[in-house]
Design a protein that fits this description.
Layout (H helix, E strand, L loop, with lengths): L6 H17 L6 E6 L2 E7 L2 H4 L6 H13 L8 E6 L3 H10 L3 E6 L24 E4 L3 H21 L1
Parallel strand pairs: 3-4, 4-5
Antiparallel strand pairs: 1-2, 1-3
Amino acid sequence: MAALKTDEHWMKEALKEAQKAEAIQEVPVGAVIVKNNQIIARGFNQVISQNDPTAHAEVVALRKAAEALGNYRLVDSEMYITLEPCMMCFGAMVHARVKKVHFATKEPKAGVICSHLHLDKAPFLNHQIEVESGVLEAEAAALLKQFFYQRRQERKNS
């Protein structure tokens, strides 16, 4: 049996996905879904390129995982995301029955796990998701800061 990979290993894979988003001028957020010590799906932000407000990294990965498993319920799966999820994405994870979410850095504007709402602790949800934060936080935060710094510089120079 293959050795169990670490959370840092999986988050590095999510960071690779975030870099794909950055390469096409999307906000650099990436996600991977892991089950049985294997990546079953990957996703990166494609909102602008796909003209789809739901094409966040997490939703893209959830759709691919459901297709790969032939089931919308992703029981015993874990998601690694470079940024704290928004309400839409967290809701989709609840409906998919994701077991655990690992995210790298907080999203102070729209994050719903620790920045606002604390939905992971909401008693009205029919599924509770375990949460871990801070895995490769500095790397994910640096990628986002650099992206938005470049965007501001481009606007300033145009």
